[in-house]
Hints:
Helix content: over 70%
Order of helices and strands: HHHHHHHHHHH
Oligomer: single chain
Radius of gyration: 19 Å
Number of helices: 11
Number of strands: 0
Amino acid sequence: MRRAIGPAFALASREMKRFFRERTRVIGALLQPLLFWAFFGAGLTGSFRPPGADAPGYAAYLFPGIVVLVLLFTAIFSTISVIEDRHHGFLQAVLVAPVSRTALVLGKTLGGVAIALLQAAALVALAPLAGFSLGVMDYATLAGALFLSAVGFTALGFAVAWWIDSTQGYHAIMSVALIPLWMLSGAMFPPTGSSRWLAALTALDPMTYVVSAIRRGFHGTALPLGLIPARSSLLADLAIVAGFAVVALGGAVALCRRRA
């Protein structure tokens, strides 16, 4: 493990420098979800309101889901470098070096997590624009949920990028798999009052608990009823998100060790 720490941090530092040098990726990962929030939040405010008399407007309801969407987009844009490194020969050089596969996965994942958290922090600072009070927010819950979900999304992106050799195929799979999961998570509409099959899919979706935990962090103790899944608790949400992160990271390491 000590041998893996140095190379992992070196790879993570490389990922951060590379990502922020490519301004189009930074803008795309942050600006597209913000535009999504602005257009949908303004367009649906008059026609859709979350349940409950004390529920926030739709723009405030959608904002935590947009933070999760930023994490998703950042994971997609950062881990696509695995495919690019393979094509440019850098990945082969790392594989023949005296560096463990675990260090490679940790380095790529930590770099993506750091990028995702920086962009998420920028959105958290903009939370008053959505109607949230910075003094009410539960920052410990928010930080824990953001970190664990960033690890899960980035490790999952690494695993898919390691398995696929085409950037077009990577984008197609990540978009088809992750965007519907995000839409089912309660990010766009409340999990209550839906049909049985939709409710079952929502309960099985790990992103549901990511959105729920982050929503709890934004609202703090002033969380209105009906915005999160029934029979849900903070500890359960964080435990499921942590389990998702561990499984995704373990799967990425196992796949990296088996397939070059």
